[in-house]
Amino acid sequence: MPETTVQSMTIAQAINSGYHCAMEADDKIVLLGEDVAEPIGGVFKTTKDLSTKFGTDRVRATPIAEGAIAGSAVGLALGGYRAVAEVMFFDFTTHVMDQILNHAAKFRYMTGGATPTPVLVTTVVGSSHFGAQHAQSVESWFMHTPGINVCFPSTPADAKGLLMTCLESPDPSLLIQHSGLLYSIKEEVPVGPHRVPLGKAKTVRTGDDVTIVSYGPAVRIAMAAAESLAQDGIEADVIDLRSLVPLDFPAVFESVERTGRCVITHEATQFAGPGAEIAARITEDLFSELQGPVLRVGGLFTPQPFAKTLNRHPTSERVVAKVKQLF
Amino acid sequence: MTDTTLTDRPPRLDVEALERMYSLMLGTALADQRAAAESKAGRLMAAFYPVRGMEAVCAALGETMRTGDKMVSTYRNLGDALAKRMPLRSIIAELYGKAEGCSRGRGGPMHLQDQDVNFTATTGIVGSGMQIAAGLGMAEQLSGDGNAVVVTFGDGATSIGAFHEGMGFVALWKLPVVIVCQNNQWGEHTSIKEYTAAPELAQRAASYGMRAEKVDGFDPMACVAALETALARARAGEGPTFLEFEHYRLTGHTGTADFSYVPKDELAAAMERDPAPTFRKWLLANGHLSEGQIAEVETRVRAELEDAFQFAQNGTDPVQADIYEGVFENDEFARSVDGA
Fold first, then answer.
1. Does residue A134 carry a catalytic annotation?
2. The pLDDT value given to residue A4
3. Helix, strand, coil percentages in chain A from 3-state DSSP, rounded to 5
4. How far does chain A reach from its first CA to its final CA, in angstroms?
5. SS3 A284
6. Which of B99, B125, B323 faces A302 most closely, judged by CB atoms?
7. Which A residues, 249 through 288, put their C-beta within 8 Å of a C-beta on chain B?
8. Would you give the DSSP letter of residue B159?
9. I want to staple B283 with a disulfide (CB 3.0 to 4.6 A). Which of A137, B223, B225, B289 is the partner?
10. Can you list the domains of chain A with their CATH numbers?
C-alpha cells in the first residue's frame, strides 16, 4: 500500500488502524486489556479485529485487574516485548500507578540505563454521564513523574500518528483519548504507517493578536473561541500541543513572542494543572514581551458533577472572556 | 428448571415479608426496564447498570439485614438500595441528576447512598468496596455495637488486587463482614470461564481462612437462609462469611449495551429462572399469596415507580453557582483555589 493512500477515519478507527499497522510491522507487540479481544474488540471498538488477525496470545482479554495489566506490560517490556496496557477509563489508572510511575517510568534511570521499559498505556477520558469516578482528566499526575511520555491527540491523524510513534518509542508512554472525540470527527488518515513526532505542537489557526494553547477536547473550545473573537477583530493563534511530555515550548514561545498575549485552556483541573507549568515557563522566558499575564481556563476545582446543569469544563465563552481581559 | 426447585419458606417470613420480597424483585426489574426505555428515548442521560438476575439475592438482603447493619455496594446498586429501604424517589431523582436525589445530583446512579438507613457507600471502581467494608468491619468490631457489614460486588471484582487485600484483612481480624459475591457469570463483557482458571469462588474464598458457601442465587429462600446464618455469625463476633450467590446476568453490562455475545442457550436457561416471575409462580403454587394479593402488590409497585419517575422528571436541576458545594466541608476552600 503506498504511504500516500488515505481514508476517512474517526479517532477510534484511526487508533485501530494504527494498531494494525504497528502489529503487522512488529510481532513483539502484545496488547493487554479488559474486553480488548473479539467479539467485543474493546468497549470503544479501538481494538476491533486485532485478536482475529494477530491471535489471542498477542491480544489478550484480561481479568478486571489493571494493576496486573500494567505490571505484566512492564514484565513483557523487560522480557523483550512491547506491551500495550489498555486501561478502560482514565480514573482506573489509579490502579496502575505503582507499576507505571514507580517502575516503568524509572527503570531506565535507576538501573543506569540498563532496563528501558517501553510500555504504552492507553486510556479514555470524558464520559461525564458516568459521574465522578469515570471522567477525571488526570494527565498532570503522569506529567509530574519524569520518565514517561504523555500524549493527548485531538484528531484522527494525530491519534494514529502518536500511537505509532509511542509504539516505536524507546520509553514508556501514555496515550489519552477522549470519548467525546472518538467517533464525532472524521478526517483523511494515511492507511499505512503514519507517525507524528513526540513534543511537536501543531498550529491549527493563525493570528497575531493572542495565542490560545490547548490540547485534546479543549482544542475545539479554543477554535470556537477564536472564531468568536475574530468577529470582534481579535485574531488568535491556536496551538494544539498534542503531546504534553515532551512539551513543545519553542512553538509556544514563538507564538507568544509574536502575539504578546496567551490564554491556556484544558479540561484538566486548572489548579496545579498543565497550564500552570506552561504559564510559568512563558512568564520566565518572555516576561518582557508580554502585554499582560498569561491566563488559564481549566477545569474548576471540583470532582466531575453528575448533573448536566453543572459544568466544570472550559467553554468557548469562558475562553473569550479571558482573552478579552488582555485587551 | 421450574419453581418447584425453590426452597420452602422459613417460618419467620410472614405474608408481609413475602410481599416485600416480591415487590423488591418486581420493582427492581421494572425500574431497570423503565430506565433503559428512558435512555433509549433520549430523555435520560445516565450510565446505569441493571440488576436483572440478582433480584432474589437483593430481596433476601432486604429481609435479613437490619437498619443498623451497614452496606457497601457498587454501581450495580438499585436492588441493594431498595434492600436497605432507601426511598425510591431519592434514588430515581439521583438517576436524573436532580437536587432532590440522594446525592443531590452530584453523584448520579453510580453513587447512591443513604446514611439514614446505613446504605453507607457505593463505588464505581471495581473491587474497591471490599477494602472499605474491612474498615467498616473494624469500626463495628471496635465499637461493639453488634451490627454487621455487608459488601456486595460481582464475580468480576474477584480478579483485582483490592479485593484480595481486603479479603486478607477481613479474614485475619475475623471482622463482622458478610461478603456477598453476586456471581452473574460475567465480568463486564467477558465470561467467568474466560477470565479465571479458578471459577469456584467460594472455594477460593475459603482458602483465605474464612467461612465460605455457594448458594443458588435464583432461589430466594435459600438466599434468605444463607444470609441469616452469615449475618448472625457476624453480629455474634464469630467472623466473616463469603457467600457466592450463583445466578446469571439477564441483561448487558450497562442498561443500553448490546449483549449479543451472551450465548443464547445460557441466557434462555437463565430466563427460565427470572427471579420475579419465578417467585410469583412459587407464591401462588404454595398458596402463600392469592392472585388478588399479587395483583395488589403489582399495582402498588407500578404506581410507586410511576410516582418516583414523575417526581424525578419534575425535580430541580442543580445550579452552576452551587458547583463548589461539597468539595470540602467549607465551600470557600474550593472557591478560594479558583479565586471564584
1. yes
2. 73
3. 40, 20, 40
4. 51
5. helix
6. B323
7. 270-271
8. G
9. B289
10. 6-190 (3.40.50.970), 202-324 (3.40.50.920)
Can you state the percent helix, strand and coil of chain B, rounding each to 5? 50, 10, 40
Name the grid cell of B272: 427460565
**The residue type at A85:** A
- Backbone φ and ψ for A224, nearest 5 degrees, come out as -65, -40
Subunit contact A309:B317, Cβ cutoff 8 A:
yes
As a whole number, the mean pLDDT across chain B is 95
Q: What is the pLDDT of residue B107?
A: 94
C-alpha cell at B294: 399479587
Below-50 pLDDT ranges, chain A: none
Give B319 to chain A, closest Cα distance, Å. 6
d(CA A284, CA A288): 9
Say yes or no: B125 contacts chain A, CB-CB below 8 A. yes
Instruction: Please give the DSSP secondary-structure letter assigned to residue A101.
Output: I
- Residue B323 CA to residue A208 CA, distance in Å, equals 36
Local structure of B179: helix, strand or coil: strand
State chain A's mean pLDDT as an integer.
96
Give CA separation, B275 vs A151, B218, B256, B291, in Å: 48, 6, 21, 18
Q: Of A202, A233, A216, A191, which is closest to residue A273 (Cα–Cα)?
A: A216
Distance in Å, alpha carbon of A120 to nearest chain B alpha carbon: 21
- CA B59 – CA B50 distance, rounded (Å): 15
Return d(Cα B63, Cα B185) in angstroms, integer.
25
Contact B219, B225 (CB under 8 A): no
What's the confidence (pLDDT) of residue B6? 86
The pLDDT score that the predictor gives to residue B257 is 85
Q: Is A311 on the interface with B (CB under 8 A)?
A: yes
pLDDT at A2: 55
Which single residue is written with the C-alpha cell 518572555? A286
* CA distance linking residue B255 with residue B247, whole number of Å: 18
Going by C-alpha positions, the residue among A81, A85, A75, A90 that lies closest to residue A34 is A85
What is residue B321's DSSP assignment?
Answer: G
Residues 6+ apart with CB under 8 A from B198: B204
Cα angle: B202, vertex B207, B209; to 5 degrees = 105
Q: Tell me which chain B residues have a C-beta less than 8 angstroms from the C-beta of A302.
A: 323-324, 327, 334
User: What is B3-338's CATH number, 2.40.160.20, 3.40.50.970, 3.90.550.10, 3.40.50.2000?
Assistant: 3.40.50.970
Is B259 within 8 Å of chain A by CB?
no
pLDDT digits (tens, 9 = 90+) for B238-247: 999 999 999 9
The answer to whether residue A293 neighbours chain B at the CB level (below 8 Å) is no
Q: Which long-range contacts (CB under 8 A, 24 or more apart) does B284-293 make?
A: B285/B3, B285/B4, B286/B8, B286/B9, B288/B9, B288/B15, B288/B18, B289/B15, B289/B18, B289/B19, B289/B22, B293/B15, B293/B19
Question: Which listed residue (A95, A129, A134, A313) is catalytic?
Answer: A134
Facing residue for B320 by CB, picked from A62, A133, A310: A310
Q: How many residues does chain A have?
A: 327
Which H or E element spans position B90?
helix B88-95
CA-nearest of A233, A326, A311 to A279 is A326
Cell numbers 516503568 correspond to A104
DSSP strand E in chain A: where? 6-9, 29-33, 59-61, 82-87, 120-125, 149-151, 173-178, 187-190, 202-205, 210-214, 236-240, 243-245, 262-269, 295-299
Q: Between chains, do B324 and A132 touch, taking CB under 8 Å as contact? A: no
- The answer for A 131-190 residues in CB contact with B (under 8 A) is 131-134
Instruction: Please report where in the chains the cell 489498555 appears, as a residue.
Output: A86
Report pLDDT for A122: 98
Q: Does B320 touch chain A (CB under 8 A)?
A: yes
What span, in angstroms and rounded, lies between the C-alpha atoms of B239 and B228? 14
Residues of chain B with pLDDT under 70: 1-4
